[in-house]
Amino acid sequence: MIQIVQGNNHRLADAEIHVVIDVIRAFTVAHYAFIQGAQRIILAGSLEEAFRFKRDHPDHLLAGEIKGLPIPGFDLDNSPARITQANLAGKTLIQKTTNGVEATLNSLNAKQVFVTGFSNAATTASWIKSRIPSASPEPRLHLVASHPTGDDDLACAEYIAGILRGDGSPTAAQTLERIRGSEAAAKFFDPGQPAFLPEDMEFCLRERSTGFVMKVVTRGGIPVIEREEVN
Ligand SMILES: O=C(O)[C@H](CS(=O)(=O)O)OP(=O)(O)O
Ligand SMILES: [Mg+2]
C-alpha cells in the first residue's frame, strides 16, 4: 500500500519504507552535496543542536536556511547552485532546514528511510521497486511531501508513486510543470527577491542519474543521510 502524506510535522504509522521528499530545496542540495563528494549529512532538529554538533566537530560544515535565507554562522546556505561551487570531498554536513529536515526527523519509524528531491526521484523509486519482491505482500510505504501546503513535493510524490505502481503517471514533464508553478518556486522567478537564485530552480528541475540513493540511518542515536550505490 502506497500512501502520500503532506507536511513536516506528522506522526506516521510504522512502515516498511518512508520516502521524504523536498524538491525546493533541501534534498536537491543533499543530492548535489554527495555529487560534490560529501561523505554524510547529519540532520539537526534545531539550531542549538546544529551548533553543538559543529562545536564538537569544527571540521563539519553547517548547511541550511531559515525562511529560505542563509543562517548567520552557517558555512553554507540552502542553494544547490552554490553547493556545486564547493569542494565537499570527504566532508560531513550538518543540515537544518524548515521542511525537508524537519519532515525526515518526524519520519524515522520505518525499516528503511530515503530522502530525495526531483533530481534523484526516478533513481530512488526504481531502486525501491527493484527491491520489493513481487511474491511478497505489498509493504506499507509512505511518501512524505514535506512542504505543508505547496505543490512541488506533492507533485514529486505522485511521480514516485507512478513509478512504483508501474503506470508512469504522472509523467516527468507533468511533474516539472507543477513544480515550476508551485508556491515555493515563485520567489526564485521574482526579480524583486534577489536572495533567491533563479539557477537554483534549474538544479531542482533537472533529473540526474548519479547511481546512488540517499538513505537515512541512525548512527549513535544521530540521524544521518548516507549515499547507497545502486549500480
Ligand atoms: O529554503 C528552502 O528552499 C525551503 C524554505 S522555503 O519553503 O523555500 O521558504 O526550505 P526546505 O526545507 O528546503 O523546503
Ligand atoms: Mg522545500
TrEMBL record:
This protein's UniProt keywords: Hydrolase, Magnesium
Cofactor: Mg(2+)
Record EC number: 3.1.3.71
InterPro entries (UniProt xref): ComB-like, ComB-like_sf
Domain of life the protein comes from: Bacteria
SUPFAM superfamilies reported for this sequence: ComB-like
Catalyzed reactions per annotation: (2R)-O-phospho-3-sulfolactate + H2O = (2R)-3-sulfolactate + phosphate
Assigned protein family: Belongs to the ComB family.
Protein name: Probable 2-phosphosulfolactate phosphatase
